[in-house]
Write a structure and sequence with these properties.
This protein has 14 helices and 13 strands. By secondary structure, it is α/β, with parallel strands linked by helices. It folds into two domains: about 180 residues, Rossmann fold (3-Layer(aba) Sandwich); about 170 residues, Glycogen Phosphorylase B (Rossmann fold). It is globular, with a radius of gyration of 21 Å. The mean pLDDT is about 95.
Length: about 375
């Protein structure tokens, strides 16, 4: 087969879909030494992006069409047609109108349909404006979770047999670390041991204002409550988060670690008392899985895919109930048996999530749609 994978987004941002695309390509390179892969890279990236041609049967293709351009589906078609692909995989939802005999897309979530108020105008125009045509055009759809597969059926009428779930994997760097290794990073960052941790983009669907309300209530109940450490980067519509910290007078208790290097992240997880993910919606929820792989208890939303990721290893809360979240945070801090059970169960569950399995399912879909 000649397989194309659109990796242009990795030239504009890291994390999220870019992380998925990079890990999938790396796993496919370890798995498949027979088929030919054309990996589309952005011609004018805005960040230093990895060269995603990790094996002899993978080649780098430079694409002039920028991501999310208003004419992207047309201009990218013209660029890709010359490659004569059997399958083109679009990991960022939206495929070109033409370009391959068969198109596979990944739909990570339908947050933009559930919560349009949480989107920028440009994001809403791009995803909501094209998603119906994309799912209709695709020969097959990959979804990160059963929750997203169900959403595709419920909101867009996509038949169940057109969608295959392939859960994401976890990087081997996320594991329990020796105490000294975590301590060195923690001391360099000026962090205490045993804080509450949030990891993710600062944007409305992550429900950071709700987390801050719950944390303020926790501090009123527990005078010695540990700091809340917030790791990530600013997304869209993030201003209300910083305003909320000031309104609740939490400046001295909340620590911000923006754009933390990946190499420091496993140690930051290892030093936490618990990972908190109170999102209104997640298509998967990698931070919860990364925390579990480090042996860290989790407190997560009971919506979207997060219950699938943590199973019965963590505490589930209603993201619309800050009081419920505050009580869950109190429990995980004061109950050492709960923390131990959650950590042990999370480690065992996290071991079942691998990028190799993700890639095996993707490759089986490529072969099925192409008839190879």
């Amino acid at each position: 087969m000649r397989i194309g994978i659109d990796a242009r987004l990795t030239g504009y941002r890291d994390g999220g879909i870019s992380e998925y695309t990079r890990r999938l390509i790396e796993a496919l390179a370890r798995l498949d030494h027979t088929d030919e892969y054309a990996i589309l890279h952005a011609a004018r990236p805005t960040r230093i992006a990895p060269d995603l041609a990790p094996a002899a049967n993978f080649r780098r293709i430079t694409a002039l069409t920028p991501c999310h351009h208003r004419f992207e589906r047309i201009t990218l078609s013209l660029e890709v047609l010359r490659l004569r692909l059997d399958v083109l995989h679009s990991p960022d939802f939206i495929p070109p109108r033409l370009g391959a005999k068969h198109h596979v897309i990944t739909v990570h979530d339908l947050n933009f349909l559930y919560y349009p108020q949480f989107q920028t105008a440009d994001s809403l125009r791009y995803y909501s404006g094209h998603i119906r045509a994309a799912v209709q055009q695709a020969a097959h759809i990959l979804a990160d979770s059963q929750a997203t597969k169900d959403d595709l059926n419920r909101l867009l009428g996509v038949p169940a047999d057109k969608v295959t779930v392939h859960r994401l994997g976890v990087d081997p760097a996320f594991q329990p670390l020796p105490g000294d290794a975590a301590r060195v990073v923690r001391e360099r960052l000026g962090l205490p041991l045993g804080y509450l941790l949030f990891v993710g983009t600062f944007e409305p669907r992550k429900n950071l204002p709700g987390l801050l309300e719950a944390y303020a209530a926790l501090c009123a109940d527990l005078a010695d409550a540990p700091p809340l450490v917030i790791v990530g980067r600013r997304g869209w519509l993030y201003e209300s988060v910083f305003q909320k910290v000031a309104a609740l007078r939490l400046e001295s208790r909340v620590r911000w670690l923006e754009d933390l290097p990946f190499a420091d992240l496993p140690a930051v997880y290892n030093s936490a008392a618990a990972l908190v993910a109170p999102s209104f919606y997640e298509g998967f929820g990698l931070p919860a899985l990364e925390a579990m792989a480090c042996g860290v208890p989790t407190v997560v939303s009971n919506r979207g895919s997060l219950p699938e990721v943590v199973g019965d290893t963590g505490l589930l809360i209603d993201p619309d109930r800050p009081d419920e979240l505050a009580e869950a945070l109190r429990r995980v801090l004061v109950d050492s048996d709960l923390r131990r059970r959650s950590a042990e169960a999370g480690l065992a569950r996290a071991a079942t999530f691998t990028w190799q399995h993700t890639a095996e399912i993707a490759l089986s879909v490529y072969r099925r749609v192409s008839g190879c």
